[in-house]
Amino acid sequence: MPYLQTIFNELIDSYIDNKVGIAKDFLSAPLASNLKANLMSLLATNQLLSAGTGNDTKVVHDQLYRSDSIYWLDRKHNDPHENDFFDLMDQFVEHLNRTCYTGITGYEFHYALYQSGSFYKKHFDQFRNNSSRQYSMIMYLNTNWTSGDGGELRIHNTDHEQDIAPTNGKSVFFKSSELEHEVLLTNKPRMSVTGWLKVG
Ligand SMILES: O=C(O)CCC(=O)C(=O)O
Ligand SMILES: [Fe+2]
């Protein structure tokens, strides 16, 4: 089986078994490093925006709730690495729809930077007034991450909590309406690409 399909199945199979899909090497090392370099240059050129909570009609900038900053990826940027990322996501969505009949028709992704001391309190990803977000997907861009660095993604399952370290290239995948989660306070800059697979 081609390598990518093996990784896609690792993510999907662990999602089916545990409600939280994890694939350790979803992003290749070069792609992760190129996306991280993009994020660093967005920071250097002041293009990152403090992230809001809520959807477009009611965005609240509450730093007590989440303190990351973000930038949306777009094919219109004509950035080769963003386009490599979108090519990968197109293949993943095609694979997911073909093997699981998910009917995903779109997606949206942003870079996220959690500076040291940042966090994102417990929340669901699906907006109350809009259910187009079906699956949440996060890809991490952090080399040399160790346990004292904090910044784990904490998933609140009904009967247990699960902490996931944001290590380089890893992807996490779960149903947006189903699992409450949070980002624990990070002691080091923590970088990722986060997004949603959508219907309608
Ligand atoms: O970065 C993470 O691990 C999760 C981010 C998150 O929950 C979100 O952006 O909605
Ligand atoms: Fe979230």
UniProtKB/TrEMBL annotation:
InterPro entries, per database record: HIF_prolyl_hydroxylases (IPR051559), Oxoglu/Fe-dep_dioxygenase_dom (IPR005123), Pro_4_hyd_alph (IPR006620), Pro_4_hyd_alph_FE2OG_OXY (IPR044862)
Q: Does the keyword Membrane apply?
A: no
Q: Name one GO biological process term.
A: cellular response to hypoxia
Cross-referenced Pfam families, in alphabetical order? 2OG-FeII_Oxy_3
Q: Does the keyword Iron apply?
A: yes
Q: Where is the Fe2OG dioxygenase domain?
A: 105-199
Note the SMART domains from the entry: P4Hc
UniProt protein name:
SM-20-related protein
Which residues are the signal sequence here?
none
Keyword annotations from UniProtKB, A to Z: Dioxygenase, Iron, Metal-binding, Oxidoreductase, Vitamin C
Entry cofactors = L-ascorbate
Q: Name one GO molecular function term.
A: L-ascorbic acid binding
